[in-house]
Protein: Zinc-ribbon domain-containing protein
Amino acid sequence: MQLNHKRYQAADDRGGSDTMFCPNCGQKVKTTDEFCGNCGYNLKEFKAQEVSESAAAQPTTPASAQSTEAPVSAQPSKAQPSSSQAQQPKSGATTANEKANVAPKTNDTQTTGPTREETVHVTRSRSEHVATGKPAGTNGSGKATPKWVWIVIALVVIVLGGGYLFGKNYYSRTAQLNRAVTAVKNGDKGVAGYFSSTDPNLKLSDAKIKPLTKHFKSKPAALASFKRQLNNGQTNDERFTYQLSGKHWLLFDKYTIHVKPIYPTATTNRDGAKITLDGKQVATSNSTTYSKQLGPLVPGDYKIASNGTVNGSKMTNSGTYFIDKAGQSVDLALRTISFTVQTSPKTAVYVNDKKVGTADSTGDLSVSELPWSGNMEVTGKYGSGASTVTSKAYKVTTDNENVTLEFDGVMSMDDAKSYMDEYWTAISNVTSSGDESDATDDNSKDLSEYFTDGTENPQYKEMIRMSKSYHSADDIYGVSYDCDVRSVVPTGKDKFTITYYLTYTFELEDTNHIQEFSYDAHMQKTGNDDYKVVKVTGGQKIRDTHED
Structure:
């Protein structure tokens, strides 16, 4: 006998409960709700669709077949024969009852919809969480996923996302360059990590980078230029290149400052002279025309010296050199040198930061028999009140050289003499004519242009008053002015004082009255090569004579 088995949809395990779970978000809702209060899902439409699918899933077998079919659970509890046994007849022929229980195989017995197995599969795949009473987000056992799991997942996502955004900013091209330049500026530990090189002889370390950091320490403008050039890709001398050199954490671009090292040459003229680099001996000469290649060196400031004996006396040629060019040579010859300094009176004179004397009242100083250095720089320091002004550096290259030390924003002696000559020419023209409109120098520069605040300057007004009074004096037939500049000394940034002697010659009826006074013109630089008188002080009489 052949048995027909049917699969039925599982009973709703919600029983008589008036609640269910939203199929969209898993929120517990009432069965009468039309929309989910948590996510807005259309519950009414979903339940209508579920009913429609359940109806379509019912078999359409004929009534005769349905009458012979029964759920397995309706069979008696006694042991049933196996399906194979039920299909085997007890004798060689099929009994009438068996024939009656076998449904004929005709087209009428075919279902018009999907099979029960297909319907169950579709129903479960689309609404299993409702049919079984399980909310969305449940695990395999039907239990809801703990809230802390979702919290942990959210935190992980936030941390990973935030970490990526942070890393993208932290490892940006600009941010990496900023950190590298800051490390160079401060000489930070680990600064070598920002550099790279393809020269196999150059082993980068903080000590190797130190000469570069030392060079920029007192030169902020040079460091700023260095940074700008690197931001454009490469420095002007092509010694440093800012380039991509790998990855950080396999995600972010890594940039380094690629350095091309230098191999300078040191030479000396003494046999047996010891050559040192930053205090470490690197060679000993064996001839009077000795040369030694140094390096590889990262561009920067290095103290290079030679020590030897000249005519029985120990001598050292030492200097700090900025090594930045290919094929650069450092002359470490051992000999002496002499020179004369001309600067502002009472200026302290230094050679390579070592004081060698002070200029006299005329601004002169003679320096004799100094050990020569290939990088011998002379500077002057002038104390003005509580501040000290330092001159421009002058590099001595030959013996018996005349060294003129000048200060930024301060006139040279020659310029000061020319300036004061023209200044008094303009005053003399007013004295001759008595007309202020004639107050111009030989270059047609108006006298007012020599003063800060122009015609409003008190000193300008005094010069015009004095000139007109001399012109109108009945006993004065003529006046001449002779200015002798004695010194120019700095008093601050772009400020200085010109000390001069002024000789007045008054032409009287029977004699010439000659008077000489000392004055200080307090000056200020107001532009490129533009200097103005702020005020004039002094007026000490030096001589007062009459000549026939």
About this structure: Residues 1-15, 61-133 have pLDDT under 50 and may be disordered.
